[in-house]
Amino acid sequence: MPANNAVRRSLAVIAALPLLTLAACGYGSQAKDDDTAKVATGADKIEGLDSVKIGYFGNLTHATALVGRQQGTFQKELGATKAEYATFNAGPSEIEALNSGSIDIGWIGPSPAINGYTKSNGKSLKIIGGSASGGVKLVVNPKKVTSLKDVKGKKIATPQLGNTQDVAFLNWIADQGWKVDAQSGKGDVTVVRSDNKVTPDAFKAGSIDGAWVPEPTASKLVAEGGKVLLDEATLWPDKKFVITNIIVRQSFLKEHPKAVEAVLKASVETNKWINANPDKAKAVANKQLEADSGKALPAAVLDPAWKSIQITDDPLAATLNTEAEHAVKAGLLEKPDLKGIYDLTILNKVLKGEGEKTVDDAGLGTS
What is the pLDDT of residue 39? Predict the structure, then answer.
């Protein structure tokens, strides 16, 4: 098949995933009202808004959103404008929600942000801040895989075709000199696209030999007897790479900059508190995970998972550009023009106001 046809088919598959996942898995569920985030007496609505709708995943890599929600920090900064939340399990469905106006601002991984931006010809979203680095590992069955070269010929899971970890794994495979068809996942390694919710069961049953996944799924596999064969952070300069960004609908950014500033101020405040109080923050994040899913993470999973994630305001823009190059190399994306994907103006204003160091857009900003 010609390369262009393969790319178009890939993008069509990725574009269809939000609808399939929403129908099949109920992604984008509306979260329950917060008991911990009461509106202060006498507070005013920001720009006359009744609410700001915030999306995030039930992953520890979205710790800023988990902790900020649980502690009521977003609500505090938004005043009488209500912070409303929706939780997601997949990036494409969150992009769909952003495009439809179901959410205004979201925490999301780099690959869906890149896909959302490029498929809309740069009109759907802006990345307005960073949130987390790291927290992705290749975990294997040590009885079947004892070294990196043993991955060849094995069945390894990733969360979804074209998602951030899928792209990273396909790139790693190519770097080993192995061949895999990105669409089917067949080749020198069999790439199995498996929802993070079911991957631990598949691993336990022996239907996969390992997985390239984010936390806490990676630590769940370790708890089932898996071994960390590779931490993705070791593949990046300074061991830092973007795993979670903050995005906003462009129309919302234009019409409601003060509301965006309030959310970013809450994010910066939350990140500062997390880094100053890691053990307390870990417990708070787990409490929100329990509220969202009905089940808290056990210490054997929570503790190692939390240690592998770095919370940061910096969007690590240069690494996003590299991740886009990896998607192109895998045949999942035509070479994108990412100029303008970032607008860090408001974030840097907030950081300056807090006496913190400003962050860089790696030449991919709006100006």
Answer: 67
